[in-house]
């Protein structure tokens, strides 16, 4: 038995994506910058891939920059903007950003920049008034995660983007969790910079995108020629093509997948909340594949081990912090105590999950939680 319920950490690559990658690893291996026919073949496919992602997000083709993943895209967005605007020394982030943004923000503080960390309410929505009040002439950028990877809260990026636009600062959003699950249009949603990646949408690891609106200035992290001079290094054509194949399929199946995943999610939430002394973290109206439930008095670490033995892959908090015993900063930001945060289970679904798996999982979680509570008495 193998039940994979950790799709916020990474997803199973689609067969179609792997097949596509094989073509580029085995035969269409040209360097897109080469002028011979092998190079041109790779270049044309790369540009077609770029156009597909642009069409999906409402961007222009030349606004899509390929990177090595969401961590790099987030870093390129934030550092890139700061370096292009050397007189401005203040940025704004939320308290529930992904660690790749929060740890960069902390490093920037050590380097002398000012960072404002916006609070969230008990469901995880950012404090809009605090955002507005903290923008001043020294502020250059706000980076606010679209859908949170732990509690599935989806921010109103259109409104946040509008505020940033009016106050003349740059708006970056990390949409790694929401891409292919929530429809995004970079123009409608007032987005200047947007991060998304491949391995959260059934593509390969090690590839992502930074959307950069025309006219927004950033400085590159790696210097050279490729990607409009903004991300040097020979394009990882096999990964890029696998990524785009996965994105295409996700959008073709959008309505069907979302509807099924929503159904499984709500069944799981309903069943988990039938366990005594449990509660849902994050809002009811949340990312279609995210479940985060706490069980009073149950240590999530022990629960995860028991689930693992039963063939269920789950998570407590975010994957990046799961090797540490520190309680999740996201759960603390929505008001949980350390103890409460350490009794939280995150399950994240994909189109590959089935009704049967959900029923089995509910049964096992219930048994394990009861067993762990009994052991404590
Ligand atoms: C997974 C994830 C990242 C990191 O993505 P990589 O491509 O592994 O670098 C960043 N932000 C969010 C919201 C994520 O879920």
Descriptive account of the structure:
The protein is built from 12 helices and 12 strands. The protein is an alpha/beta fold. A 7-stranded mixed sheet has the order 2-8-7-6-5-3-4, with helices on both faces. A 3-stranded antiparallel sheet has the order 9-10-12. A two-stranded parallel ribbon has the order 1-11. It is globular. It starts with a strand and ends with a helix. The model has no long low-confidence stretch (mean pLDDT 96). The structure holds pyridoxal-5'-phosphate (PLP).
Write a short abstract of this structure.
The chain has about 375 residues and is α/β, with parallel strands linked by helices.
Ligand identities: pyridoxal-5'-phosphate
Instruction: Write the H/E string, N to C.
Output: EHHEHEHEHEHEEEHHEEHEHHEH
The outline comes out as globular
Radius of gyration: 21 Å
> How many strands in all?
12
List the strand order in the largest sheet: 2-8-7-6-5-3-4
Q: Please state the structural category.
A: alpha/beta
How many helices? The count is 12
Helical coverage, percent range? 40-55%
Ends apart, CA distance between termini: 31 Å
- Main pleated sheet: 7 strands, mixed
**Which strand-content bin applies to the residues?**
5-15%
Q: How would you state the average pLDDT, rounded?
A: 96
Spans of 5+ residues with little confidence (pLDDT < 50)?
none
Please give the structural blueprint.
Layout: E1 3-4, H1 15-26, H2 37-57, E2 64-67, H3 70-84, E3 90-94, H4 99-110, E4 114-118, H5 128-134, E5 139-143, H6 157-166, E6 170-174, E7 193-197, E8 208-212, H7 237-252, H8 254-273, E9 278-280, E10 290-295, H9 300-309, E11 312-313, H10 329-333, H11 338-341, E12 344-348, H12 355-376
Parallel strand pairs: 1-11, 3-4, 3-5, 5-6, 6-7
Antiparallel strand pairs: 2-8, 7-8, 9-10, 10-12
């Amino acid at each position: 038995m193998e039940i994979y319920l950790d799709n916020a950490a990474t997803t199973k690559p689609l067969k179609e994506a792997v097949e596509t990658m094989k073509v580029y690893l085995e035969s269409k291996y040209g360097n897109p910058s080469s002028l011979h026919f092998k190079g041109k073949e790779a270049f044309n496919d790369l540009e077609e891939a770029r156009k597909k992602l642009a069409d999906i997000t409402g961007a222009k083709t030349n606004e899509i920059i390929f990177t090595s993943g969401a961590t790099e895209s987030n870093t390129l967005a934030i550092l890139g903007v700061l370096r292009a605007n050397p007189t401005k020394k203040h940025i704004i982030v939320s308290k529930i950003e992904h660690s790749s943004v929060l740890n960069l923000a902390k490093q920037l503080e050590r380097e002398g920049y000012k960072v404002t960390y916006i609070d969230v309410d008990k469901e995880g929505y950012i404090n809009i008034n605090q955002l507005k009040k903290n923008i001043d002439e020294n502020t250059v950028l706000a980076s606010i995660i679209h859908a949170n990877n732990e509690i599935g809260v989806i921010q109103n990026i259109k409104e946040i983007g509008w505020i940033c636009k009016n106050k003349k600062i740059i708006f970056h959003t990390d949409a790694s969790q929401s891409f292919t699950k929530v429809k995004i249009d970079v123009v409608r949603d007032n987005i200047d910079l947007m991060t998304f990646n491949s391995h959260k949408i059934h593509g390969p690891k090690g590839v992502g995108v930074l959307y950069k609106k025309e006219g927004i200035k950033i400085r590159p992290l790696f210097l050279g020629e490729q990607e409009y001079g903004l991300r040097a290094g020979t394009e990882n054509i096999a990964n890029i093509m696998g990524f785009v194949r996965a994105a295409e399929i996700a959008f073709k199946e959008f309505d069907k997948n979302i509807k099924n995943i929503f159904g499984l999610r709500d069944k799981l939430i309903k069943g988990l909340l039938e366990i005594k002394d449990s509660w849902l973290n994050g809002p009811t109206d949340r990312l279609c594949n995210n479940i985060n439930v706490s069980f009073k008095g149950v240590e999530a670490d022990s629960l995860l081990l028991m689930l693992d033995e039963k063939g269920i892959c789950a998570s407590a908090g975010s994957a990046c912090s799961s090797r540490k015993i520190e309680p999740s900063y996201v759960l603390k930001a929505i008001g949980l105590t350390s103890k409460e945060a350490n009794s939280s289970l995150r399950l994240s679904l994909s189109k590959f999950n089935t009704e049967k798996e959900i029923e089995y999982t509910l049964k096992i979680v219930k048994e394990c939680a009861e067993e762990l509570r009994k052991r404590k008495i």
